[in-house]
Amino acid sequence: MDNRNCFHCGDPCDDDTILYQDKAFCCNGCKTVYEIFDSNDLKYYYDLQSAAGSTPKLMPGKFDFLENTEIAEQLIEFNDGKHQIINLFIPTIHCSSCIWVLENLHKLAPGVVQSQVDFPQKTLRISFVATVISLKEIAELLAKIGYEPTISLADSDVKKNRDDKKIIYQLGVAGFGFGNIMFLSFPEYFDVNEFWLEQYKILFRWLMFAFSVPVVFYAGKDYLISAYKGIRSRYLNIDVPIALGILVLFLRSTLEISFDWGSGFFDSLSGLIFFLLLGKYFQKRTYSFLSFERDYKSYFPVAVTRILQDGKEEVAQVNDVNKGDRLLIRHGELIPVDGVLKGGAAEIDYSFVTGEARPVHVELGEKIFAGGKQLGGPFEMVADKKVSQSYLTQLWSHSVFGENSESKFKSLTDSIGKRFTYAVLSIAMIASLYWMFTDPEKVWNVFTAVLIIACPCAIALAAPFTLGNMLRIFGRKKFYLKDVSVIEKMAGINTAIFDKTGTLTTRKHDQILYEGSQLTTEEKSLLKSTLRASNHPLSRSLYTLLKEHNIMSLDQYEEFIGQGLYGSKGDANIKIGAASFVDNCNENSPGTAEVHLSTNAEYKGRFVLESQYRHGISQLMSELTKELDVAVLSGDHDGERNRLEALLPGLTPMYFDQSPQDKLFFVKELQDSGKRVMMVGDGLNDAGALAQSDVGIALAEDINVFSPACDGILDASKFEHLSSYLHASKKAMGIIRLSFVLSLLYNLVGLYFAVTGQLQPVIAAILMPLSSISIVAFTTVTTNWIGRKIR
Amino acid sequence: MSVIYVLLTISIVVAVIFFVAFIHSVRSGQYEDSYTPSVRILFEDELIRPKKNTTDQSVPISSKTSTKSKQI
Fewest C-beta in 10 Å: which of A195, A388, A470, A534? Predict the structure, then answer.
């Protein structure tokens, strides 16, 4: 184990390494977790996977709201007064060590009876004795060992219904029927005219019929219903020819065995439905731990601290906050409602709401908007609206969040389905007409045979298997899509719009520029020591960016909130902060984050911190402009225009000072002029545009933290490869088209037998699974080949 | 009665037994999380070791941490 890396979390240790039991830790939090595990015989945690832990972030009082019985009741699933069961979402679950330690929670907390991890969902189900340990204590314990549960408003709403079990049942029924029917129809395949076969074939056939009834009317009912709905709304989707094939197969087979004309096609029928369901199941399995439907509710906290008239504090549900309530917002908390600052100092980071990168200092009596994050100390505010009426949450009342975007989109398979149905019906008609004049007895046989053999099973399988596999490949590359239709939409876009803050830039300030007179070594050391004491985000980033210097203890240190820092050592003193604070008549130039400094009342100069653009965006943009219209839409002011112009290909349109609504309307206007738009954004301010666009992709530094409602979540480290994902989705559509050609070839062979009136059940039983399996194999191999080329 | 009826009955009964077992497995939630059990089964052997050493101490240890957590 490398000594330079933290034994608990694996992060590189900086100069302030803590040594404990000969092991290095990067911070006190990690060391505490190790101590807890060590003293409770849970050290096996580190044997399972080295450096598995995550650094705990303790925020005192964060889980106080769980003491409020009203809130707790909404979260707890089962409660008989003594035993309680709760399901907690823990985003940091990521390895087998996590599962092990969380399932051994009872060793750490006496009241816990049992805890069970659901790894794909990243949830922990805990049953505990409420009289021994409270919900709040459990949450705090989890946070202390680095597994902080995420509890949000969305959790307290209705639980997700588990509809996906139905497809498993259907698949089971179809597989059960398919296997048994195959088994029973085996003797007839070989057509041996043995005595016992002749004697019992009636029994065998009716048994097959009995097995096929649940397959058609339970497992296959979704296709029948979907086709019925399609015909009623005068829209021929791919399910129409499928349902036609299923029904004709079933009716013809039933008639055949009733009048002893033949053995029927029950084997092909159940096999067809089984394969179709398999495709459906394959494309349905997505990322259950990610949520693509989040609205502001999952971003907001569940509860806030309300100050009562008599000065007491109480925990109140966010939904219960009314106009006129006094609220206490602590460091790091989100502001849940619009209001006015009444006490304390507010230093608010609105970057998530507006895209504005710089924290805003708010004076007493000024307005504060919901969605901001407090960076300074605690303050008091008075709410002047209810939560649902805030500026930010109003965006969600826009119609774009209400309508179902699925209905607007017509997939390639469905558009083929229409032509296919017409083609099949006309071939069946022509063939029947021909036979009507040559051999009228065969008309019924030929007509049904055409409908059976042309059943577009392979066509219906091509898209689910190609796109389902592509979805998984993208997932391995850290690009998570909501469902398979997004790939199809991605292949068709012709306009890409990017947000600036947090999307083109990283969230951190990474570049630093010093303008002014040279500093001496003592001054530099004093500067670094003063910055070290401050928690302001600018001081933190400046501190980490400055080179190593001796850290000394200061004689005097003072922080003036919203203005700057003052530090002194011996007879040297330093002032760091805003221009007005550092006795400089210069005003802050707008659009940049600046830190001025003066030593011994003499102005020295300023540090300009620039937000860093993501790696490789120039190249990505020039690749994209070859094929798409690209534009930048930012909620920030245009201070960065020049830098952006240098980075992006010439003539890229840029729009600044865009409100969330502006962004939404911008996308809508483009769509009205016939463009198919992809929006790439990260924050709540992009939420409207993400929902309105054809493909909305949210960029996330950490995919587990909140991202707005979208079609796909892209890990920020993969941003520069975005164009290769677009290429891959175009190629995937190419594969689907090739598969269509392939399956049409099979259909032509089958149609030859059908039209000439020689379709035997055994031919159908070979041809239909063969075409399905070869399509599945073809799409799987080719998508994997494409996937290997994606970086 | 012909032996074929016996054979058919047996084969269908066996098939139905498996079908019922399948329904039961879905209903009891075995298809909801198909990953965690595969990891969990590997813990079992290792788990016994620490348990054996500490069975007599387990009560005081857990009470120690609960007091610790209050201090922090």
Answer: A195
Residues 6+ apart with CB under 8 A from A685: A352, A353, A354, A355, A499, A635, A659, A660, A663
Q: Give the tokens for residue A497.
A: 């719009």
Residue A88 sits at φ, ψ, to 5 deg, of: -110, 140
Q: How many CB atoms lie within 10 A of CB A606?
A: 21
Please name the residue of chain A whose CA is at the shortest distance from the CA of residue B30: A165
Tens digit of each residue's pLDDT (9 = 90 or more) over A663-706: 888 888 998 888 889 999 887 778 888 888 889 898 887 766 66
Element (H, E) at A368: strand A367-368
Sign of the Cα torsion A750, A752, A754, A760 reads: negative
- Cα A581 to chain centroid distance, Å, stands at 44
Q: Are A546 and A528 in contact (CB under 8 A)?
A: yes
- The verdict on a CB contact (< 8 Å) between A39 and B61 is yes
Question: What residue of B is the nearest CA neighbor of A145?
Answer: B69
> A120, B36: Cβ pair inside 8 Å?
yes
Task: Give pLDDT tens digits for A545-575.
Answer: 776 666 777 778 877 766 778 888 877 888 8
- Chain A residue numbers with beta carbons less than 8 Å from the beta carbon of B11 are 183
Contacts of A28 (CB under 8 A, 6+ apart): A18
User: Which residue intervals of chain A bear CATH 3.40.1110.10?
Assistant: 508-613
Tell whether the model's pLDDT for residue A174 goes beyond 90. Answer: yes
Of B35, B36, B50, the CB nearest to A41: B50
For residues A731 and A786, what is the distance between their CA atoms, to the nearest angstrom?
8
A312-316, A423-427, B31-35, B41-45, range with the lowest pLDDT? B41-45
For A221-332, strand residue ranges (E) read 303-307, 313-317, 326-329
Tell me the residue length of chain A: 791
**Helices and strands counted in chain B (H then E):** 3, 0
Q: Do B36 and A119 touch (CB under 8 A)?
A: yes
Q: Is the pLDDT reported for residue A37 higher than 50? A: yes
ipTM of model over 0.95 = no
Fold entry, domain A64-151: Alpha-Beta Plaits (3.30.70)
Interface of A with B in 226-245 (CB under 8 A): none
Type of residue at A140: E
Mean pLDDT across A437-457: 83
> Which of A40, A99, A203 lies at the smallest CB-CB distance from B39?
A99
**Lowest mean pLDDT across A19-33, A290-304, A471-485:** A290-304
> Could you say which of 3.40.50.300, 3.40.50.1860, 3.40.1110.10, 3.40.309.10 is the CATH number of the domain covering A508-613?
3.40.1110.10
Task: Return the higher-pLDDT residue of B51 and A556.
Answer: A556
Residue A155, burial from CB neighbour count under 10 angstroms (0-12, 13-18, 19+): middle
CATH number belonging to domain A301-335+338-384 = 2.70.150.10
Q: Do A169 and B63 touch (CB under 8 A)?
A: no
CATH says A478-505+614-730 is which class? Answer: alpha beta
Euclidean distance between CA atoms A396 and A712, whole angstroms: 19
pLDDT tens, residue by residue, A595-644: 788 888 788 887 777 777 888 888 888 888 888 888 888 877 777 787 78
Cβ atoms of A368 and A338 closer than 8 Å: yes
Of all residues in chain A, the one with the smallest CA distance to B29 is A165
- CB-CB contact of A601 with A583 (8 Å): yes
